[in-house]
Amino acid sequence: MRIFVTHISPKDKIIEYGISLSASNFNYNLIESGCFDKVYSIYPGFVKGKLDKVDDHKFEAIYSSWRWKGRIKQRLARFIEQYRLFRKIPQGAKVWYYNMTTLNILLILLLKLFKPSVQQNIIILDYTPDVPFNKRILPLINKMHGRISLSTYKKFNQHNLVCMPGVVPSQDSSHPTITKIKREFLLSGALKENIAMHSMVLDAFAEMPELTLHISGVLIDHKKKMMEYAEKYPNIHFRGKMPFDDFKALLSSVPFSLNTRKPSAPENLCNFPSKVIEAILYNRIIISTIHYPQLDGIDYFEVASDKETFKQDIRRIAAMDDTELLRYANQGSKAVERFNTSRWNEVMTQIENAK
To answer: Looking at the predicted structure, is the pLDDT value of residue 266 above 90?
Structure first.
């Protein structure tokens, strides 16, 4: 029996409950492939109170009433939920975790101590090496039976590890191809400086009025600056956190997708942005400040991370002929071939069967 332990809400509650869109997209791509016999969800700690809907036919949520019974009990609720889930997992099951966090660490330890026949594996998506908690759990990550990592981070135990930078549906050819290239660019995701460098991107596009910038996502840093620039510069459009269908429509209409992660940030050494795989699937042209070995064989632009050189690189790309640019577009079939759910199922089976 293969079990997935993750942290999702029903699709129609993602925005309302504040769950990450990119994480939800990743999870649902895996879940809807039929890779798992059973899926459980423990909600992130910031989700509290009585909710009108916590699960559906795709997964079972373990949601304690402690989440609406005072601050101390709210903090402890995740551990109560892990104990309840521990009791549900049968001996001999194969369990896969979405990251290792305080939402599952007690469960992992309980299973290791009291149900050692349960095989425990992990999908490592969001790991920041200089965070104290992550330093403490790295040995435990490396002692799991197997690992799927989105990155090539060298401190992860390489035994029984496979690098898979993203997941897409096995059959997905519904996304529009690019035939004519507008000079419009999209920056999306968590708008935090280390992840998006959106302060630099704002400054750059403010000085390139001939190019259009669309920004979508959760605004974490530089909130005042974002609002001021969106109001002041007609070529900069901030759309905030959008419903998934609206975001898909935006992604399908903007040719260039920006991945402006800060190259020197430690977390960017051992993560991979799922939005890049999503943009490739949608046939968009990728522009990245970081080189990714995981994308060898896929054509994308690498640009500088300082403002002046970034501007030069973006203007050079925008000045290219459409015929030349189209070489970097319409590569969705490559994403499907390399990162589809059938391939993920094969990799998980390979890891589970390894000694």
So the answer is: no
Q: Please, what sign has the CA dihedral across residues 160, 120, 42, 129?
A: negative
Bridge partners, residue 66, by sequence: none
Using a 10 angstrom Cβ sphere, with 0-12 exposed, 13-18 middle and 19 or more buried, the burial of residue 91 is: exposed
Model pLDDT for residues 288-324, shown as the tens digit of each residue: 999 999 899 999 999 999 999 999 999 999 999 999 9
What is the DSSP secondary-structure string of 144-175?
SSEEEESS--TTS--TTEEE----B-SS---S
Strands 94-98 and 2-6: parallel
Query: From CA 285, how far away is CA 329, in angstroms rounded?
Result: 5
Closest CA to 255 of 179, 166, 311, 320: 179
Indicate the DSSP class of residue 267: G
pLDDT grade for 173, boundaries at 50, 70 and 90: low
pTM across the whole model: 0.86
Pairwise CA distance, residues 7 & 97, whole Å: 10
Q: Give the residues across from 189 on adjacent strands.
A: 217
Alpha-helix runs per DSSP H in 186-306: 193-196, 198-206, 223-232, 244-253, 274-281
